[in-house]
Structures are given as structure tokens and as C-alpha cells.
Predict the structure of dTDP-4-dehydrorhamnose 3,5-epimerase.
Amino acid sequence: MLFEDTEIPAVKIVTPRKHGDARGFFSEVYKESDWKNAGLDFTFVQDNHSFSAPVGTLRGLHFQTAPFAQDKLIRVARGRILDVAVDIRRSSPTFGEHVAVELSAENWRQLLVPIGFAHGFITLDPDTEVLYKVTALYSAANDRGLAFDDPDIGVDWPMPPGGPLLSDKDKRWPRLRDLADAFA
């Protein structure tokens, strides 16, 4: 397994090895001992799977507050996404900055998004499937978000004609400067 730092060192790109032959491939997408050897110690408690039919489906930017704050490990089983993590830790020197990484079934990369970051993605291919592990259970009472189009963050989302497909909830999230729930 290959572990790489991003522009924000707390966010990591993780690329598992693929072993292929005429039948297809096999891959260990998560192995606790490899993570611990890399100095990463997480206990994942829930796996999530999302399917997005149209290109330009934007999900995010989401996070949960304590005591249900979540570390996330995101990967793509089918299709491609631009995956984004925004630092919302107020005391961080990278507060308000973001990392954007293309994840795909082809490049087999995963993104580790730690607690203290808002997370979201936009689909780049039709019929995209995203899987992610989290370290805390979903809690509707602790579910929060950040406006995907906040100019102070400046994510360069690859927009389809007519703009992204958003949930009603994702259309209403506050800007970073108005975010009461940013992490200390």
C-alpha cells in the first residue's frame, strides 16, 4: 500500500496494490497492519456506498460534529470523481484551504479525510459508485455542511452545462465565514 501526503499533510492519498491476471484482479483495499506501520491508526465502524447516475452530481461538502465527528476513507468502485477535503479546523495554519484529488476505478486511489475537514465530491462519469469507510456512525443531529461554491474556499469544480445536481440540503449550507460548527 502506498501512502502519500497532499498539500495539507493531514489528508492522505492511499493507493492499494492490485494483483491482476487473465481473470481480473485482487486488491486489499484496507489492511490495518499496513496502516499502523505507516503511523495511521483508525477504527472504521461503518461502510457507506453511494451511486450517482448523472455526471455532475455533487455531494457535499459534509462533516459531522463531536461526538460523532468522522474520519473518512473514500474510494471509487466504478466511474470517476473529483474528491475534495476542506480544512475547517479554526486553529490550523491551513484553515479554509482544500485538497482536490481525482479518484477513479482506474487509478485505484483512495483519499483519507480526517476529522476537522468538510468532504464532498462531484461525479465525472455517469453511473459512478463511491464507497467510504467512517470512524463514527451517522448522526442526523450532528450532520453539518459547508457551501460547495463558497468563493473564500475557491474549489474549481468541473461543472456540467447547467450546473451540478445537488440535494436540497446541499443547496442550503452556510459559507465558511458563517460556519458556527468549525472545529477548534
Observations:
- Residues 44-174 form a domain with the Jelly Rolls fold (CATH 2.60.120.10).
